[in-house]
């Protein structure tokens, strides 16, 4: 089969390309490199079954041609990371909503199946844990940029499901919880690579807030396996699936775990939210997925625990050099 991956030069997209190629498929990547990197797909450029186009997923003429040549579309192109969202909310909203509208409209002309990569951010400040796909979403006020990303991705979901219900376009939504692994940059606030780079450089491991906020981290190899399996079925259109891990850890404990795994002498320090983001920044104290739906439908569950994930990321950072960002929250 022929697959188009928008955002395919990004962290998750490049690993998805790897997995699809290993399964014997043809893959074409579309990416404007605004947050992705050509380095993520450089190892694939000589493969006959792989191609790429450097352009935005919001360019209708380009997307139309690539959709026509594909059997299935993975729409991963998005503005990512809390730091980017807080600093550039207009870009985040326009990128997420406009690109999704273009991809869905053009995929609908030929009824090409689409998987929309969404995010656990859409659950917002919900307190009913673990988060279920059919649970309510609770977002913050519109004057706080923190919630622009969550709202834009929720709108992507609404639009995708609307295309399925009204126009019978096969659409599947995957809500990804914190995904971690090699090639992930700390540039836009991804906490694990940021901690790993700080630890390896002997710099302070900076935890924002009081560190009691907790997350569940899933290895990218497990995530892309789920994404491939979701689109291998023809009976899942119109459905939303959580994809992630249920192994929960506080961010403060994560800092200490990274320090230990990296055999580092770095101090773990706390930084107030207001010093990192906009005044009044809000965050979710916990974010844990209910995975019963995807386990029941696909038999999918993560295979790598947190120690394995951290070991993989730290080894990747050792090999890739040290760029020391300020560590963010998610």
Mean pLDDT: 92
Subunit organisation of the chains: single chain
Radius of gyration based on Cα positions: 19 Å
Determine and state the CATH class of the largest domain. Alpha Beta
Order of helices and strands: EHEEHEHHEHEEHEEEHEEHEHHH
Strand order of the largest sheet: 3-2-1-4-5-6-11
Output the CATH homologous superfamily of the largest domain.
Answer: NAD(P)-binding Rossmann-like Domain
Strand composition percent: 15-25%
Number of DSSP strand runs: 13
CATH architecture call of the largest domain? 3-Layer(aba) Sandwich
- CATH fold name of the largest domain: Rossmann fold
Distance between the termini: 35 Å
Describe, in plain words, how this protein is organized in 3D:
The protein has a seven-stranded parallel β-sheet with strand order 3-2-1-4-5-6-11, with helices on both faces. It has a two-stranded parallel ribbon with strand order 7-10. A two-stranded parallel ribbon has the order 8-13. The protein is built from eleven helices and 13 strands. It folds into two domains: 202 residues, Rossmann fold (3-Layer(aba) Sandwich), CATH 3.40.50; 97 residues, UDP-galactose 4-epimerase, domain 1. The longest helix has 22 residues. Helix content is 39%, strand content 16%. With 330 residues, it is an alpha/beta fold.
Question: Which characteristics define this entry?
Answer:
single chain; 330 residues; Rossmann fold; UDP-galactose 4-epimerase, domain 1; 7-stranded parallel sheet; disordered C terminus
